Amino acid sequence: MTNKPASRPLTGVRVLVGRARHQAGALSTQLRKLGAEVLEIPFIEIRNPRSFKPLDHALKKLVAYDWLILTSVNGVDAMWERLTKLRLTKQSLRHLNIAAIGPATKRAIEKRSLTVNVVPEEYVAESVVKSLRPQVRGKRVLLVRAKVARDVIPRELRKAGAEVDVVEAYETVVPRASRARLRAALKNAAKRPEVITFTSSSTVKNFVALLARSGRTRSGKDARLEGITLASIGPVTSETMRDLKLGVDVEARQYTIPGLVQAIVASLRPM
Q1: Could you say which of 68, 97, 169, 189 has the lowest number of CB atoms within 10 Å?
Q2: Residue 110 · residue 135 · CB < 8 Å
């Protein structure tokens, strides 16, 4: 076995990145810096919602809200685009307390010269609720998110006494063009990945949809995935993977892109 330089521990390892095309760069860049051969086949495609009316309506009455919760960079980008279309400035958000799930979302907000008041210790909905529960009783909260998302945040904050409005800023769909590319990559020894990354429950669900049905081994795993390490960004994504019978070989301890990369490197070190 060829010795790998300490600075490039993923040399010779082929990793399939399934993030949306415009978001794959950060993960792919970090993997390539560590020597990995990266194959990008998007498992999700970001689209506008069928209507921006609910989001626009909420943005026009921001003065009525006390808190704004943003759960992804996609949500930040979509909201900012609508603010621009409506000719609203960042001043309309200055009075708000803002919560962000994760450092990437926080950076996207701060890039717009806004202050983030809360980033939970763990970058999952349950941690957001834990951070905000003592602060939202009697407050109005605007949650900007994807069309399909877990209902933990609105449900639990309402229990805590908040009035919560949920608006869709974007939706994720299955990129049909990826189906043939994914199946070909799994069949072709020259392209077959040794690691597949999953960065959200949506990437998991869409991956299974792209793969479609196939024979399973005794372990219950799709036969086409035998010998491939399946890497998850965190416990919510892992739960979806297990629910859909994929199994989880690697889970990041810190639920971020750097945390996922670190977990992949650790999993491939010789024992």
Answers
A1: 189
A2: no
Start-end of CATH 3.40.50.10090 domains in the chain = 14-44+175-268, 47-171
Topology (CATH level 3) of domain 47-171: Rossmann fold (3.40.50)
pLDDT of residue 4: 65
In contact, 19 and 44? CB cutoff 8 Å: yes
pTM, full prediction: 0.75
Two tokens, residue 214: 């196939």
Nearest to 150 by CA among 207, 212, 205: 205
For domain 14-44+175-268, give the CATH number.
Answer: 3.40.50.10090
Q: List, for residues 183-230, the tens digit of each pLDDT value.
A: 999 998 888 999 999 998 889 999 999 988 655 545 566 788 988 999
Question: Alpha-carbon distance 180 to 37, whole Å?
Answer: 20
pLDDT value, residue 163: 94
